[in-house]
Each structure stands twice: as C-alpha cells, then as structure tokens.
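ESCALATION

Customer reports they have been waiting on this structure for their group meeting. Please prioritize. Original submission:
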Amino acid sequence: MNAIVEEKALQPQARPVARYTWQAMALHWLLAVLIIGMLVLGYSLEDIPRNTPARGFYVNLHKSFGVLALVLVLVRLGWRLTHKPPPLEVAMPRWQAVAAAWSHRLLYLCILLQPLSGYLGSSFGKYGVKFFGIELPNWGWEDKALRGFFGGVHEAVGFVLAVLIAIHVLAALKHLLIDRDGVFQRMLPGGRKT
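Update from on-call: job pushed to the front of the queue and completed.
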C-alpha cells in the first residue's frame, strides 16, 4: 500500500493549464499547416522542369497560398497584439524563457517576410501574382535584378524559417515528452481554459 502511495507522489500532478483562446489556436494550427505545406511545395518546385504547364500550375498554387498566408499572418499579428497570451505558470530557466521569446519573434518576422518577399519578387517578374486565378496588382515593374534580389531573400528566409520551425517543434516536444509541464497543452484544443 505504501509503495502505491509513494509511486503516486512521484508522478506529476495533473492540473488545469492556462490555454490560449480557440481563435489563437485556430490561427496557430492553420498557419502551421499552411507554412509547412508552402515550404514543402516551394522546395519541390525545384524538381519540376521550367516552362511546363505543371510548373505553372504549382507556382501559381504556391503564390496563392502565399497570399493567403500573408493575410493570415497579418490577422494573427493583429490578434496577438490585442490579446495577451495566457500566463506561463511553469518555472523555467531564464535562458529558456529568453530563447523562447526570441524564437517566437523571429518566427513572426519570417512568416511575415516570406510571403512579402515572394510577392515582391513576383511583382518584378513578367507573370505577377494570381490569387487562385484572380490577378493581383503588381507592386513593381519587370526588373530581373530586383526579382532576383527578392527571390534570394525569399529563399534565405525560407531556410531560416524551416530551421526555426524545427527548433519550435523540438522545444514543444521537449515540453510534452520530457518536462511534462503543460506548456505544449496551452496550444492544444480540448480541455478547459483557465
């Protein structure tokens, strides 16, 4: 009997977790799926031969989802600036808290720069941007050098974004599987919000 009581005392106690709002969760997960899909599609474009109908289709699909991502990023930033996140009730080393804050800032910066640089790169090309078939205004003129510059920015930010996403996922898994401190559950639907 005492062994059971001692074993229970060693297990972490389940307690309600202060969660994000359902709107913040929906924006987070929708953007996560969209951005990871966009990265996969963007890197896959390199394998599709140029000047083929298939490439044109996938490039336009990439651009359309990029515009959608830009709109959702702006909505997410607006939501984040007007709604405080739930309090973090976990004691963590200061370096981890600082690293988490900076990685989130860099993620926001990258998810804003990525679609903007893509749109600008396309604006300085001859094809422009179509949003699921609807032609959008160009913010530039045909200029190979500027298109190349913004294309380079788009590629570099895509790489940094992929690295930041990997770090973000690994940190979330650490909180879920190792620390078991409820940090991961803050962004999961279900359960009650406190």
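Sent to customer with the following note: The longest helix spans residues 144-179.
Escalation resolved.
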